[in-house]
Amino acid sequence: MAQKAFVFRTSDEDKKWLAQELFNGTLRQGWGISGTSLKSNDSEISLEKWIPQYIAAAHVHWQTEVTPEQAAKRYGILRPMLEVEEGDLLVIPKMPTWGTFTVCEAATGYSFDERDSKERDGYDDFRHTISVKTDSMKRFGHKANEQSRVMASKFRAYQSAINRVWNTEAISAIQSLFMMPSDESRIAVETVLQEQILPDLTARYIEKLISLGPKEVESAVHLMLEKCGYEIAEVNHYDSEGGDADIIATRSLPFLSEVCQAVSKLYVQVKAKSGTDWNDVAGVKQLQKITEGEIAPHHKILVSTATEFTTECKVMAEECGVVLVNGHQLLAQLIKYI
Description:
Trna Endonuclease, Chain: A, domain 1, seven-stranded mixed sheet, 2 domains
């Protein structure tokens, strides 16, 4: 059977533990609390049976009300894990650090970790798993070589949690990288920066950014978008029904804009918060509401200086197509463009 390739995206907030698990032979995927297995007795659970199980589990573990439509979308996102077989190649972006990625070989197909959370470092989530061959791990910086640059350039096309790779150039790059030695020197430098230096610096500068006040944070995002080539079409746009966008920005698309006036349109909500914003889901709801009826292609972005988003927010954001940008990511982009 032909070797398949997949791109797996994992939680940024839990990266340290997930990296530890990966290098011990287990690739874990989120939205996997108790009671949400995709299989029962080695047989796939149907969508019709899985939906009520997921809704009940989300209510118990996340205290979140999930609609059947949202559960169905979640099933569709997770289901490609069932296609993974022994020998398939898996690519994990931002693993073990932001500027790197890991390529490895699957040892088995999908399984669900039923163990008590006490046996899993206290985690109840991330029970969807693929066993990987620990001696197959290859790690690369984005610019380590020609093939890693090709792969890094393709990541934008694979934004879902689990992505089957069909692009022939991407597949060729993955297969070539799998045959190469790891870029360990880059990994060592990235690890020191990411784990020992950047966390303290980032936290310090995020607090300084927050101290400027909400309007100034919004102005910084405004300026960053302009530096990226966007035109600010409107600010503080809101309706009387709960919809709100702090910034609406547009950018002409090369070639297309010359023949059909095509533009990229962003609806941006900006929040100046510290730590975890426990009401962050409100920003997703505001963006979803304000774009109801919008027929032109657009993107919705929730930018927050908070270090992480709540589970409820992440669930709703993925269902509503809202991109989440946390404080660490915002700071990196501000430094890059301003």
